[in-house]
Write a structure and sequence with these properties.
The complex is a heterodimer of chains A (149) and B (618). A two-stranded antiparallel sheet of chain A has the order 1-8. The radius of gyration of chain A is 15 Å and the shape is globular. Mean pLDDT of chain A is 92; it is low at 1-5. In chain A, a hairpin with a 6-residue loop joins strand 6 and strand 7 (118-119). The N and C termini of chain A lie far apart (32 Å). Chain A is built from 4 helices and 8 strands; from the N terminus they run βαββαββαββαβ. With 149 residues, chain A is of the alpha+beta class. The longest helix of chain A has 11 residues, at 25-35. In chain B, the strands form 5 sheets. In chain B, strands 2-1-6-3-4-5 form a 6-stranded mixed sheet. Chain B starts with 7 loop residues before the first strand and ends in a 13-residue tail after the last helix. The chains are: A alpha+beta (149), B alpha+beta (618). At the A-B interface, helix 1 of A face strand 13 and strand 14 of B. The complex binds iron/sulfur cluster (SF4) (3 copies). One iron/sulfur cluster is lined by residues 13, 30, 43-45, 121-124, 128-130 of chain A.
Chain lengths: 149, 618
């Protein structure tokens, strides 16, 4: 690690893969919010379909303590949002180099086709659409750490 | 262009290897909406009359609807082509993830023409279209080919349609596998794909489907989801898919047993949700954008067939490959259905064909091959037949690969008396001897023996109500009117292209609200009926042009000749008078002449006459 980063705390998305049906409704609503139209490929979360769809696993942005996305960004466009605990991209600073997307261990950063800039999960400012839209309760927003009581 | 549609069709000519796009004309969108209606019109305009289904001119089309790929719940896609099994219009619907991907790649539909010299697969990466060699995939089963294409393209997320050996060998009821556990199953679209030497179609799309009024659309989606939650039928689908229908059909005497010789089966519950949940199910799965999740994914874990993943054995397959063959071990049935899926043949027709062969065997019309006894209940014989059909490597396979209608004609004797089909399409798993309107539904369905073009059975046998009046199962009066309304609405919403199970819950007003918000045009709840009527005349016209004989608007002989031996409908069969009465009523309400042909006046009234011809540009 090249620098010591402030530890992220606050809100987190977690997945209960055993409840996930692979419907991708979470991705549909996420893509619509981020890009103004539907396409699950353009969501800031992924669903891995395995074993002929016997198993579906939501892959979410972990808002990492050690965020590779933030570490590799050459222009410091990514920072911690203190209110939510999300790692957020400042679109004005982002130069669209795509390094964050290529090094995110979860592969959940997407590129805006028009601007070329990177887009990631910002936890919808604390009220995630995906959680609201999931029909099975497979996604959950939790508060991390002890000092939020 | 209004939003929600992508605005263009992709044409691919496999003969020349060329591809081009064509705008979807405004009149198509406004008069036909999408899906089934687009397919019916294009098939009429693109095929020369009398076209051989295996000729290069027969288009293989994948159509979507305006709401496909959005968050509107439970939308699908369809394959449309001229069926090699029936020689008439074929539309086959599939869920999964493929049809949304077609839209994300930028198309409302894909139209494949011509015939490649060598095996190929199609790779559609947004607007980049490649015809790639597939000799190395030829012979693989549908799932192997799927995996091979993904690994070749180095992307697990591309969406794939593929065929198995049955499609390559032009088995007339071959399916197209729409990963995973979704199939364009009926009528032989897989054989048309095989005739084009097209092993697979892979698509990756990075465009978005956009909405005219996102806020109104979100409100309509909330309403649609509320409609679904309110519906008991949808809740039942969520709990057990269509599997509970096995017990229902058994109790009401509609379950095919031993090639429809009977209407009930002593071990039905082994095959229903009761047996399946115990032996197979582990998890629920859904198509893209669907909150219903009717798939019950699982695996055969123990016993002779152990070690494979299976979806729910849905009602039609459970009945036709189970009770219809006298087989009650649900793991064996799952095994047989999985073989059909992998080899790429319709498990409904295959069940019908094997039932026919077993009965022919028992009656001494068909000689059993060495070491295999053609008799009901014999799983080993069923498996032998499936392999023989898929690979057409013996005489029995060659005979049965043509479906029961042709096989019965070739066998001669009284074989046609127990060949269960309408217009060549093997009967669905509802023996209608106790439900008159259901008989009429099979007689008149546009693609032959089909249960998805209006199925009055559940209403008829439960004494449910229609327009405020209780429905009498055996009555013939009023059945044509009821059925026509069902057929029209279903066809209209097949232009959307909705999933039938979503349609159990989502109300016509809600579909209209979704459409209006998505497209920015005004849509109303009653337009699906009108559109359906237009479609029903379009497909009838096409079928007549292709040589459909209206005398084939009839039922399998067994339903007329053999009274049901047991159950609540014991002793009942269809009389010629009953059928003639309902058919006459049906034709007249449809505005068709006595020979079942739409009159000029009707074609004008329903707006078929004024539709321009779709001209392809190359
Ligand atoms: S985008 Fe990737 S690296 Fe960055 S916080 Fe999320 S999961 Fe971690
Ligand atoms: S919280 Fe919002 S941005 Fe993050 S994955 Fe869910 S919908 Fe997308
Ligand atoms: S909406 Fe829920 S069930 Fe559907 S794919 Fe997303 S996490 Fe899974």
């Amino acid at each position: 690690m090249t620098q010591t980063l402030q530890s992220a705390k606050g809100l987190r998305l977690i997945a209960h893969f055993d409840l996930c049906t692979g419907c991708e409704i979470c991705q549909l609503v996420c893509s619509e919010r981020l890009f103004g139209g539907f396409n699950p490929r353009l969501a800031a979360l992924r669903i891995e379909h395995r074993r002929e769809n016997l198993v579906h696993e939501p892959i979410l942005c972990e808002q990492c303590h050690n965020p590779f996305c933030q570490n590799v960004c050459p222009v410091q466009a990514i920072s911690l949002d203190e209110d939510t605990g999300a790692r957020v991209i400042d679109p004005d600073t982002c130069i669209g180099c795509g390094l964050c997307a290529s090094y995110c261990p979860r592969q959940v950063i997407v590129q805006d086709r028009e601007s070329g800039k990177s887009v990631k999960c910002d936890l919808c400012n604390g009220d995630p659409l995906c959680v609201r839209a999931c029909p099975t309760g497979a996604l959950e927003l939790i508060v991390q750490g002890g000092d939020h009581a | 262009m209004p939003k929600a549609w992508m605005g263009k069709f992709l044409f691919v000519d496999l003969g020349s290897g060329s591809s081009w796009t064509q705008e979807v004309p405004d009149w198509m969108r406004s008069k036909l909406m999408g899906g089934k209606a687009f397919g019916a019109k294009l098939l009429t305009d693109l095929t020369p009359a009398g076209c051989d289904p295996f000729a290069p001119e027969n288009p293989l089309m994948i159509m979507t609807g305006p709401l496909t790929g959005t968050s509107a719940p439970s939308m699908r896609g369809c394959v449309v082509t001229k069926s090699p099994l029936t020689g008439t219009f074929l539309d086959s619907y599939f869920g999964g993830y493929f049809s949304p991907e077609v839209k994300y790649a930028g198309y409302d539909g894909i139209i494949i023409l011509g015939q490649a010299q060598e095996p190929v697969y199609l790779w559609i990466d947004d607007d980049r279209v490649e015809v790639r060699p597939a000799a190395h995939l030829w012979g693989q089963d549908a799932l192997e080919a799927n995996a091979a294409v993904k690994s070749e393209l180095n992307d697990e997320t591309v969406k794939i349609l593929s065929i198995g050996p049955a499609g390559e060998n032009r088995v007339l009821y071959s399916l197209i596998s729409c990963e995973y556990n979704r199939q364009a199953g009926r009528g032989g679209a897989g054989a048309v794909m095989g005739s084009k030497h097209l092993k697979a179609i892979a698509v990756r799309g990075t465009n978005t489907v956009t909405i005219h009024d996102p806020e109104a659309f979100r409100a309509a989606v909330i309403q649609a989801n509320a409609d679904l939650e309110k519906s008991e039928d949808v809740q039942a689908m969520r709990d057990g898919g269509t599997a509970p229908a096995v017990d229902f059909a058994n109790e009401t005497g509609l379950l095919p047993s031993r090639n429809f010789q009977d209407g009930s089966f002593e071990k039905a519950s082994n095959l229903s949700d009761i047996g399946q949940s115990k032996h197979l199910w582990l998890n629920s799965a859904a198509c893209l954008g669907c909150p219903i999740r009717c798939s019950k994914m699982g695996a055969v874990r123990t016993g002779k067939y152990a070690g494979f993943i299976t979806d729910i054995v849905e009602y039609e397959s459970a009945a036709l490959m189970g009770s219809n063959l006298g087989i009650s071990d649900v793991r064996a049935v799952a095994h047989l259905v999985k073989l059909c899926d992998r080899f790429g043949m319709d498990s409904m027709s295959t069940g019908g064909v094997i039932g026919f062969a077993m009965e022919a065997g028992e009656r001494g019309l068909l000689e059993s091959p060495d070491g295999i006894s053609l008799e009901f209940g014999n799983v080993q014989a069923a498996e032998y037949l499936i392999r023989s059909i898929a690979f057409v490597d013996n005489d029995l396979g060659k005979l049965l690969a043509q479906g029961v209608k042709r096989a019965a004609a070739a066998l001669g004797g009284d074989a046609s008396a127990f060949a269960q089909h309408v217009k060549g399409l093997e009967s669905p798993a509802w023996g209608p001897r106790g439900a008159a309107g259901t008989g009429l539904a099979f007689m008149t369905a546009d693609r032959g023996g089909c249960h998805q073009r209006g199925l009055p059975a559940p209403l008829e046998v439960t004494g449910g109500e229609w327009e405020g009046k209780p429905v009498q199962a055996l009555a013939v009066e009023g059945k044509a009117d009821m059925l026509i309304q069902m057929q029209n609405y279903l066809a209209g919403t097949d232009a959307l292209v909705k999933c039938d199970f979503g349609g159990f819950g989502v109300q016509p007003e809600t579909y209209a609200a979704l459409l209006s918000a998505a497209t920015g045009e005004r849509h109303t709840a009653d337009e699906f009926d009108r559109l359906g009527e237009r479609i029903w005349n379009l497909t009838r016209n096409f079928n007549l042009r292709e040589g459909l004989n209206p005398a084939d608007d009839t039922l399998p002989k067994r339903f007329m000749q053999d009274p049901l031996p047991s159950g609540p409908n014991k002793g009942h069969r269809f009389s010629a008078q009953d059928m003639a009465f309902m058919l006459k009523d049906y034709y007249s309400l449809r505005g068709w002449d006595q020979a079942g042909r739409p009159t000029e006046e009707t074609l004008k009234k329903v707006g078929v006459q004024d539709l321009p011809k779709f001209e392809k540009s190359s």
